[in-house]
Known about the structure:
Layout: E1 9-10, E2 18-27, E3 30-39, E4 47-52, H1 62-70, E5 74-79, H2 103-115, E6 120-126, H3 128-139, E7 146-152, H4 162-178, E8 183-185, E9 217-219, H5 220-235, E10 243-248, H6 270-277, E11 284-289, H7 301-318
Parallel strand pairs: 4-5, 4-6, 6-7, 7-10, 10-11
Antiparallel strand pairs: 1-2, 2-3, 3-5, 8-9
Helix pairs in contact: 3-5, 4-5
Amino acid sequence: MNKNMNPYTPDVLGDDYQQLTLTFPDDYEGKVIATLIRKKATTSTNKAVLYIHGFIDYFFQTEMAEQFNQHGYDFYALDLRKYGRSHLPHQILFNVLDLKEYDAEITEALKIIEEEHHSQVLLAGHSTGGLIATLYAAHYSNHPLIKALWANSPFYDFNMNVFKKTFGIPLLSQVGRYLPKAKFPSGLNKWYVPSLHKNFHGEWFFDLNWKLPSMKKVQLSFVRAIHIAQKEIHRGVKLTIPALIMHSNQTKNPRTWGKKATQSDVILGVKDIEKYARKIKGDVTTQTIQHGLHDLVLSAEPIRNQVYQQLFDWLKIKMP
């Protein structure tokens, strides 16, 4: 893809944010696009970050982009196919049969980032994006641009009891092979988005059509795609680049609104993240953030400041 033939246009986030539509061959639903969002640092740099969002999500974390700019990185983010800016009317939101479908947009984004005069890239991802980024780094271990990985509360396991994880998820995954559009209760905590959005109890503004307030059911195609990817993580992947894996110090599942929803990961099990991070072979650093939310960069200001301090301290050493 030639960026001059496909120029950036202004992004919904406003000043200094631009977006580029990436086009791909049709899939099982028809036309497919992804969206690359860019915010350049004020001074020229050969360093960049490519950020991948989580499930039921899109890129809106402007403070994170600005932090990277201030530390000498051009910032790029992907809205994956069927998410946010990239969702088309004929598509089922977030629909995927295999997480490898996203390799196409990650590869294309990296190609564009290289064309835009960068030689070092931090691959970053949150939640499902952290799972996708980890596997991409493992599968493309010789990629010349990717120099480090940052996973923010990566989705390395389902947050369920042992019985459901051992028997329930594999069964749903098998059913999902034949009935991908069948739906199953998501089990997602209802207080997560209200803990973030200004209209409820949070301090952030984002589009509630792109990051839904709740999602009571998920398609079995998603369960199957995640299960297959997680099995690879559980066996232990090998990374040839340094990795920083961050997570909250605690998981809670509050039934009513309260402090637990503002000081915990209410989506994933932090012990699972820690467990499977230890199985990754290579130079892996795991850091625990006290009272962090599921998306650590959306935590209360003192906590997210700590996240950035620890992240950029680590990058000074690993990606100088």
